[in-house]
Design brief:
This protein is of the alpha+beta class. Helix content is about 25%, strand content about 35%. The chain has 3 domains: about 90 residues, Nuclear Transport Factor 2, Chain: A; about 160 residues, Nuclear Transport Factor 2, Chain: A, CATH 3.10.450.350; about 110 residues, Glucose Permease (Domain IIA), CATH 2.70.70.10. Strands 11, 14, 15, 16, 17, 18, 19, 20, 21 and 22 form a 10-stranded antiparallel beta sheet that branches. A 5-stranded antiparallel beta sheet has the order 1-2-3-4-5, covered by helices on one side. Strands 6-7-8-9-10 form a 5-stranded antiparallel beta sheet, sandwiched between helices.
Length: about 425
């Protein structure tokens, strides 16, 4: 077959023509760059509102603040009625912030905002029919924090002073310790058993307000190495109800029939013994309980579910509560400053429920809680009694648990381990010694 040389040359001509045309079109753009128009200064527009923030001082009332906002008595009454739909003005605390809003150039009050607490704000708006109120919940976002640390002096300083938590408010760091205490409260008494050289690794989730503070927090996975023995806690929502519980790596429940201590992370001032010199009477006598030193007013928790069998003033014990539990156990709480109003003889209480506050009623030299545990009528040492565990992960949830465990444990393992932390601390100490020399 004979090829036509003109037909085979036509595509090449078309490509060349396209390139020439493109250069002709783009030449002006390449030769003349876009002129620089410069930068304009930012314009600051005045707010359309005038805003005044009042802080409720001692002795002031909400109505008193409104009386200075150019409101007639009838309008002030209507505004207070709208506010009462959401909150009681008589219960507003000192320090409450009240924001008053006006349209600029208009003396008629347009709106009021009252910060009830860090998470709720009552908004009052004027409309054609008067005043209407609504509650605005402070928005939060979820933040997952991973941190590890070595306990060189005490747990408080090891967590609160951890540089990896420096972006968190100081109060929230202290709350992390409380979360740890609640997770391991059945395995350890943080007041007595934590020691120098222990270490921790944590993965916890917190709901953060716009100001950076934490509304709520939950430990998702934790490792606490106590006296070279690692204790693990993995949060798992077994029933899908948002409550969940903590389990070890084998799926055994950390929950026990009794928590180890009725106070959160407090110092033990006296232990269970058959022979103690009484600080008031000056004689040796048995001390069948544990004393926890704590400030007056510190909340006291029931260490297990049970029924209140006694709530009264007893001479040496002062204000006292006895709670009967299953399997022949009884717990006693003495020297209370006050009783919780819900705790009466015959009332059922739950583990962790507040039953009263620390005081120094009866024979006491300072504010503390005297805590006893009896089994079948005989006193036992609360710090050394063997307490049975709760139910493990059931077989029908094991696959789901194993998947969840793998993810959470991998997060823990990504953090420095106890040996790594100890090595880093030793190297830092050697470096500091060399620098001092």
């Amino acid at each position: 077959m004979t090829r036509n040389p003109e037909r085979s040359f036509l595509p090449l001509l078309a490509v060349v023509a396209t390139l020439v045309l493109g250069l002709f079109v783009l030449r002006p753009l390449l030769a003349d760059p876009v002129p620089d128009a410069g930068e304009l200064e930012a314009l600051k527009a005045a707010s359309a509102e005038d805003i005044r923030v009042e802080v409720l001082d001692r002795g002031q009332t909400f109505g008193g603040i409104l009386s200075r906002a150019n409101l007639s008595p009838s309008e002030q009454h209507a505004l207070l009625l709208a506010f009462r739909e959401q909150a009681n003005p008589a219960r507003m605390r000192d320090g409450t912030e009240i924001t008053l809003r006006w349209i600029r150039g208009n003396e008629e009050l347009r709106g009021v905002e009252v910060a009830l607490n860090p998470d709720e704000l009552v908004r009052l708006d004027r409309d054609a029919f008067g005043w209407r109120s609504s509650v605005i919940e402070t928005p939060v976002w979820a933040d997952t924090v991973m941190v590890a640390g070595l306990i060189e002096r005490d747990l408080w300083s090891a967590v609160v002073l951890n540089p990896d938590l420096r972006e968190m408010p100081m109060g929230d760091r202290a709350r992390v310790i409380d979360l740890m205490d609640r997770v391991f409260q059945w395995q350890l008494d943080f007041s007595r058993q934590i020691q120098s050289g222990d270490a921790y690794r944590l993965v916890f989730e917190r709901m953060v307000r716009p100001d950076g503070s934490m509304r709520t927090g939950r430990i998702l996975a934790a490792e606490l190495v106590n006296r070279n023995t690692p204790l693990h806690a993995i949060w798992f929502d077994l029933y899908g109800d948002g409550e969940g519980g903590y389990y070890d790596l084998e799926g055994e429940s950390l929950r026990r029939a009794f928590i180890r201590a009725p106070l959160e992370y407090r110092r033990i001032s006296s232990v269970f013994t058959q022979n103690r010199l009484h600080p008031v009477y000056g004689i040796n006598r048995p001390h069948h309980g544990v004393d926890y030193a704590a400030p007056t007013g510190t909340p006291i928790m029931a260490t297990a579910d049970g029924v209140v069998t006694r709530r009264e003033f007893v001479r040496g014990y002062g204000n006292l509560i006895d709670i009967r539990h299953a399997n022949g156990f009884l717990t006693r709480y003495a020297h209370l400053n006050s009783f919780d109003s819900s705790v009466r003889v015959g009332a059922r209480v739950r583990q962790g429920q507040t039953i009263g506050t620390v005081g120094m009623t009866g024979t006491a030299t300072g504010p503390h809680l005297h805590y006893e545990m009896h089994r079948n009528g005989q006193p036992v040492d609360p710090l050394n009694v063997d307490i049975p565990a709760g139910d493990p992960i059931p077989e029908n949830a094991r696959d789901r648990w194993n998947d969840y465990l793998g993810v959470r444990f991998a997060m823990l393992e990504s953090l420095p381990s106890a040996p790594d932390l100890r090595l880093a601390a030793a190297q830092a100490e050697r470096t500091a010694t060399v620098d001092d020399d």
